[in-house]
Amino acid sequence: MHKSIIIAVLAAALAAMPLMAQQPAQDALQDNAPDRYVVVPGDTLWDIAIKFLKDPWRWPEVWKLNQDEIKNPHLIYPGDVIVLDRSGLHPELRLEAGQAGQVGQAGQAGDTSETVKLSPRIRVEDTSKQAIPSIPTRVIEPFLSRPLVIEPDGLEFAPRIIAAQVDRVYLGSGDVAYVNGIKDAKVDSLWQIYQPGKPLIDPESQKTLGYEAVFLGDSRVIRAGEPATIRIFGAQQEIGKGDRLVAAAPLVLRNYVPHAPTTPIQGHVIAARGGLRETGPQYVVTLNKGKNDGLEPGHVLALSRLGGTVVEDVSRKSARDTKNIPWYNMTMSEIFNRGSSEKVTTKLPDERYGLVFVFRTFDQVSYALVMSASRPVLLDDVVSTP
Q1: Which end of the chain has fewer CB within 10 Å, C or N?
Q2: Architecture per CATH, 144-247
């Protein structure tokens, strides 16, 4: 065969390898994976993925989703029927028209004789509120509706409370206060009240990545001007002079598909809610990696505990065992080393023990929900591409 033809064939084979590697095999499925599953209220995409797959982040592969569909997925609704097709070389998940009366690409509403590939399509009725979320909304909602992480000096120039209407040191729900810095704010506009919290330190560089913002409560503008007058409601902690205001943003609930990062990522758990030093499943942790590192909502990362080191005193041995040799038959080296010991250090293996699901990213840090963990999650534990 001509040399150039051989090179071309090898190049084509190498180019195809990443694609081949992405094709899921039968062993990617759970041993008891169902042939079909009817989505019910309360389900999450993660719940469904784990019913079919040993590694839930391989959902896009088995569903044959492209990158655009991963970031902007079609929504799945209660009543949808998910079918596992095992007939081909690689398993594939498909959507079957179910009792919800959906209209598929290859069948009419209520027709369950054919299956169709899940893909973006328009629904006639507005059922967006019924669509199942990727992960439990009730757990992550506070982390979506409030900033909670601010850049260094992020609150330094924010509007601030300068005085209370009554002579009080601390304010709570129903109290009125005066604020500088929001003279153009409209009456009835909503503002959240914060204090700067503890710094988020990168354990590798020791650089301050940002600060945890301590949420104190909500307020509403009742009189515009400079200073503006606000009334506090929903206070969760004591509020006082000097506390900062941030305009309340609308809650945005995004849909995203669990998937592994396409590039190697390794970071650390640097904080947990409430200042806890250990946490577990269904709790939110802060990671020292963010948008700048290539993280995006939907990324699934493995949790690992770095192996420690063990130091042992090990008896020194010369070229031969000197235990039963008379001293006058030993070399000088054997005499001096007889009965002595040396310290030997052994590195224990790293242990992978769980998964986290990234759901909100900032420039240098991210929020992730602990989805599974066989041991407590500790600060400085490692997160990496699974």
Answers
A1: N
A2: Beta Barrel (2.40)
The domain at 266-307+349-384 falls in which architecture? Beta Barrel (2.40)
**Backbone dihedral angles phi then psi of residue 206, each to the nearest 5 degrees:** 65, 20
Provide the token pair at 165.
């209407």
Residue 156: count other Cβ atoms within 10 Å of its Cβ: 10
pLDDT of residue 132: 84
Q: Which of 24, 253, 255 is nearest to 120 (CA)?
A: 255
Return d(Cα 130, Cα 127) in angstroms, integer: 5
3-state secondary structure at position 368: strand
Instruction: Name the DSSP letter for residue 61.
Output: H
Cα separation, 220 vs 189, in Å, equals 6
Q: Do 287 and 365 contact (CB within 8 A), yes or no? A: yes
Give mean pLDDT in consecutive 10-residue pieces for the chain, a chain of 386 residues: 40 36 66 89 90 89 78 80 85 69 36 38 43 84 77 80 85 93 91 89 89 90 94 91 87 80 93 82 93 93 86 60 58 61 77 93 91 93 94
Residue 282 CB: number of other CB atoms within 10 A? Answer: 15
Cα(51)–Cα(108) distance, rounded to whole angstroms?
Answer: 27
Q: Which residues pair with 346 in a beta bridge?
A: 310
The residue ranges of every structural domain in the chain are 21-126, 144-247, 266-307+349-384, 309-346
Q: What is the DSSP string of 275-336?
A: G-SEE-TT-EEEES--GGGT--TTBEEEEEE---EEEEEEE---SS--TTS-GGGS-HHHHH
Tell me the CA distances in angstroms from 160 to 26, 164, 376, one per residue in order: 59, 12, 39
Instruction: Please check whether the two domains, 144-247 and 266-307+349-384, share a CATH topology.
Output: no
Q: Helix or strand or coil: residue 217?
A: strand
Element (H, E) at 157: none
